[in-house]
Amino acid sequence: MDRYGMLEHIRAHSLVVAKVAHFLARKLIAVGVEVSIETVTAGALMHDIGKTDSLQSGRDHSRTGARICIENNLHEIADIVREHVRLKDYNPNDRLSEKEIVFYSDKRVNHDRIVNLDDRLAYILERYGKEDRVLRGAIQANFDLCRKVEARLFHKLDFSADRLAVLAGDEDIGVHRDTRG
Questions:
Q1: What is the pLDDT of residues 1-49, one digit of tens each?
Q2: CB contact at 8 A, 98 and 149
Q3: Which end of the chain has fewer CB atoms surrounding its CB within 10 Å, N or C?
Q4: Beta bridge partners of 113
Q5: What was the pLDDT predicted at 175?
Q6: Up-side HSE of residue 71: CA atoms within 13 Å toward CB?
Q7: Residue ranges of the alpha helices (H) in the chain?
């Protein structure tokens, strides 16, 4: 994050996404789903690594982030970073993946707060959808897919998506920022 000059607000968002993703991975493992907590957490922490650059360059931050992961031998999370905005080839019959957990977790965090999908969708439409009907439709379709991922995740868990903010809010993922300057 430091090496690529990640802006503080993007770092704060990434840390909360990692908390949510880590929490979900732990809970899913507890009910027998095979996912890697380390891969989920690393993917969530790095999901916006290309965002600061894209704000200046206009390039797709998920593709930039995947390239950064590959350049730094983080091949295992490159696809997670590449697909955190839009899942490609989603198949609900495939095994639940780390990619889906990070994709979903990102959609549940607005800035540095855990929110529901409706609130996040409203923000995304306002921020990025503007008056472009085609783009707004694509964003809506992406959130429709996210709702399917949400249903799939929470079908396996013993709590509802509505409780995620309360339950995941205190998650300790073992990443602490040195604030001494």
A1: 999 999 999 999 999 999 999 999 999 999 999 999 999 999 999 999 9
A2: no
A3: C
A4: 110
A5: 64
A6: 10
A7: 8-30, 37-46, 51-57, 61-71, 75-82, 98-107, 117-124, 133-155, 164-168
If you ran DSSP here, which 8-state letter would residue 156 be given?
S
Integer distance in angstroms from the first to the last C-alpha of the chain? Answer: 15
Distance CA 115, CA 127 (A): 16
Question: Any idea which residue has 């609130």 for tokens?
Answer: 119
3-state SS assignment for residue 110: strand
61-71 helix and 75-82 helix, angle to the nearest 10 degrees: 180
Segment (H or E) for 109: strand 109-110
pLDDT, one tens digit per residue, over 93-108 is 999 999 999 999 999 9
CATH number of 8-168: 1.10.3210
Which one, of 28, 25, 7, 5, lies nearest residue 17 by Cα? 25
